[in-house]
Automatic annotation (TrEMBL):
<dbReference type="Pfam" id="PF23359">
    <property type="entry name" value="Lsr2_DNA-bd"/>
</dbReference>
<feature type="domain" description="Lsr2 DNA-binding">
    <location>
        <begin position="79"/>
        <end position="114"/>
    </location>
</feature>
<dbReference type="InterPro" id="IPR055370">
    <property type="entry name" value="Lsr2_DNA-bd"/>
</dbReference>
<dbReference type="InterPro" id="IPR036625">
    <property type="entry name" value="E3-bd_dom_sf"/>
</dbReference>
<feature type="compositionally biased region" description="Low complexity">
    <location>
        <begin position="62"/>
        <end position="78"/>
    </location>
</feature>
<dbReference type="InterPro" id="IPR024412">
    <property type="entry name" value="Lsr2_dim_dom"/>
</dbReference>
<feature type="domain" description="Lsr2 dimerization">
    <location>
        <begin position="1"/>
        <end position="58"/>
    </location>
</feature>
<dbReference type="InterPro" id="IPR042261">
    <property type="entry name" value="Lsr2-like_dimerization"/>
</dbReference>
<dbReference type="Pfam" id="PF11774">
    <property type="entry name" value="Lsr2"/>
</dbReference>
<protein>
    <submittedName>
        <fullName>Lsr2 family protein</fullName>
    </submittedName>
</protein>
<keyword id="KW-0238">DNA-binding</keyword>
<feature type="region of interest" description="Disordered">
    <location>
        <begin position="53"/>
        <end position="87"/>
    </location>
</feature>
Amino acid sequence: MARQVITTLIDDLDGKPADRTVEFGIGGVKYTIDLSEANAGKLRTSLDPYIEAGRRLGRSGPASPTSRPASRSATAPNRRQENREIRDWAAQNGFEVSVRGRIPQEVLDAYRTAHR
């Protein structure tokens, strides 16, 4: 007997088709949510300032196969481009910033203040 199981993801925010399951944590509690590409992007964009300012502790468990590769590819190019723009702005405005590594918080704060 053959069996075919089809799993359909539904976006937990708007009820439309979802593209992936996203994992995140806060306050020591881990959450998982099914989201469309658009809603996953909104979540990441809203968390970006906190991720940039925070310290990474590492992963506490295995990643969901549907969340990790897509989430990296969706945000990495955007963050890299933004970091390039911040580094260029910093150099033009008298800040010393290395070409690699973490951008100092004072530079991030000054950049964000200047671009409001």
